[in-house]
Amino acid sequence: xxxxxxxxxxxxxxxxxxxxxxxxxxxxxxxxxxxxxxxxxxxxxxxxxxxxxxxxxxxxxxxxxxxxxxxxxxxxxxxxxxxxxxxxxxxxxxxxxxxxxxxxxxxxxxxxxxxxxxxxxxxxxxxxxxxxxxxxxxxxxxxxxxxxxxxxxxxxxxxxxxxxxxxxxxxxxxxxxxxxxxxxxxxxxxxxxxxxxxxxxxxxxxxxxxxxxxxxxxxxxxxxx
Length: 225
Hints:
Layout: H1 2-15, E1 22-37, E2 51-63, E3 68-83, E4 87-89, E5 94-115, E6 117-120, E7 123-138, E8 142-148, E9 151-157, E10 177-189, E11 193-202, E12 213-224
Antiparallel strand pairs: 1-2, 1-12, 2-3, 3-5, 4-5, 5-7, 5-8, 6-7, 7-10, 8-9, 10-11, 11-12
């Protein structure tokens, strides 16, 4: 909880920096690969369990006289992963979850600090680091593959609500809030066109039972006005 408050405080401070800068507004869209990181041995997931998602949004880049940059925006992002969760025992049944699919929709606000390297009149490179805060507002229904007493069952679930009875859920629901760190680079081509690649890693747990944290690689193209 203290980590979440510290990160949100940093985001507020960065957003309140003086706007003595040249402001560039733009739009971006692209694709991502995401999965979940965990220290739990009951949830082995790796690169083959990544899901393809997408992101789109508006950007606001502030460049100061010394070429330092403050970069932010508002994005709609879909990310998630395929999980192999552990075992669960009911009164009369034994459950195993070999494949659990998650597709979460977020509204995300990043705040990044970068430096604009002007290579020439037609190309600039901007490496950056920063933080993000995201709110997962919808996950719809996702596929859930389950083994019940040796029989493979294909069903569905709602990741935000969890799976099973509320008194003793087999899989707990995912949290709405996600905060994390960002590192990446943006190329500005011909003053208006952009290509961005970055990595987002969650600093809080997206799901408490298995200690899951979001991990997302993003590639976006955009236009700055």
